[in-house]
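stuck on this fold:
=====
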Amino acid sequence: MRPNRQSVVRSAFGATSWRPLGAALSIALFAAGVALAQAPAQVTGPRGEVPPPPAGEGVIQGQVIVVGSDSRPADLAVALYALRSDGAPGLSGTRTDAQGRFTFEGISASPDIVYLVGTEYGDVPFAQRVVFENDAQSLSMELALRESVESSDALEVSEVTYKFDWVGGQLFVQVSHRIVNSGSEVVYVRKARRDALSPPFEATLPETVTEYIDGQGGGRTDLVRQGDGLAFWGPIYPGPQDLRYGYLLDDPRGAPDGETPGLLEIIETLPEGAGSVRVLLPAEDGSPRGSGLGEAAERVAIEDVEYASYAGNPVPPGGELRFQVPVPASSSDSKELRLTRADYWIDHDDTAMRVTVEVHVSVAGSARLLAPPGGRLLELALPPNAEFLGLTGSTRMLGVEASGTGGLAVRGPLAPGPSVIGYRYRIPVQGRAELSIQFERAVDLLNVLVADNGVIIESERLHRKRPFKQGTRFYLHREAYQLSANELVSVQLESIQRSGVKSNGARWAALFFAAAAAFFLVSPLRRVAEPESQEEVSELALQREALYESIRDIDHDFETGKLDEPEFRALRDELRGEAIALMRQEEGEAAAAPRPAAEPLCPGCGTTTKAHWSFCAECGHSLHSGREPA
């Protein structure tokens, strides 16, 4: 699976490449501005199905009602969708009884799980979110349905928002119409009626659009492009909801040339008008002009990017909007680009490695970096067997897309100063897990951070750092400095339970078992002269031996050049101090332990005796009465 340009810009809508519950339900929630939780492809079953919700003692009891009516629809399909905090989904279904009631039993009552209960009534999807309260094992709900109408008389547009971002050499425009339905019914035109009726809502696209993005990969049936126009057929629920879509416009100047920024003009007609207009532009990109936009702007943060927000004039139905957006000065000189750091976060089990990569880049100078048409600033290699899982953070705005050679191409724009390129992928594992890391440019610092779930890390290039805790997890840390361009760093991971023993370990193991066998053979002979039991090794002693092993490890790393002297000295002193503290603790426990009582002596001959003896075994002297034997 490889990313494409549409997946990059589509993710700006807050949607992902997740599999939908059902077309109608997902469309309804998208139109209502609700972030629908859907099933990631990597967590579905072997046939692509979504697994059932997490099991437990929880019960959801509900009833379907029709607002304004006594009707309780019977035999209506109801879906239950579960989304855990880790993103894993679950899906099950049932049907309503004669009174419109339904029940979901045997599900988890964890308050961390969000449940979405949905159905379809009159071809219109309806859904409601529910969450179990702390310690509650059951909850009751009503799923309210509404009748639908085809008239748009109760609709008005309170605001239209335009958000501008440069993606590579193109301007990505996201448009959001805030539609308010002041009626009590859902406005919706069924497919069978659309040839005879006008859509409840219409919008237009500029003539210069390069690509139209509907937010669902071209699969929307409720919002249909017809030439330079858009027809929205609903459903439009009572109250406010946002209708969103986007498009791409080419930079009219072509290739970046580093000259004084130009202007890109956008002309749109609003068939439905707008009570107000708002424009969002990255704060460092200059000020837009036109359509009554004021000079003063608010500053808002959207996904770690600061935008300037400009208010414009109201637009009557059929009115026109004209914007002039500044085109920032750019350079295509990739020599200004430096890779300062790369972090690889790895979670590993017997089936797969899940890798999250963060590449820290820095752009020198005052102009943004932008690849020429068809070119790239940087290519990031992916392992040949990797399953790409998506971009992270604001990476999508850096013009990252499939390179055509199995990796990711970074086309820009990259702003002056630091930026982070984040992405995730999965590598299937069969036996030993192996990861190859390589960059086409030099990297100042490489960090490899592996979730510590009983794993051994092997790499000749990486040297050991102290483990650390992040959140509730511990990570093993390895690093390398000054990677050369195209230098290959190989990392192998193996579970401790399956790791086996190395050659030196095998020799030591053989000696150990030989000594154990010898001890077993001679132990019956030694029991005559030795005490009946031997003292066990203390837990503190075992901890101390583990510290000694760690000291030997860092000694080896220092001798082989994997640790510099200051870091080696600091780590060794710290481990040595911990070992000394354990030794002192052992001595304290030994001093405080009760000493065994001295064994008694025979008063007749002085032979050592046992406490349970009545007579001395040597001379027969009585040990209790003091009498001589007869």
Remarks:
- The chain is about 15% helix and 40% strand.
- Residues 537-595 form one domain.
- The helical segments are 5-10, 23-31, 503-526, 539-559, 565-592.
- The first helix runs from residue 5 to 10.
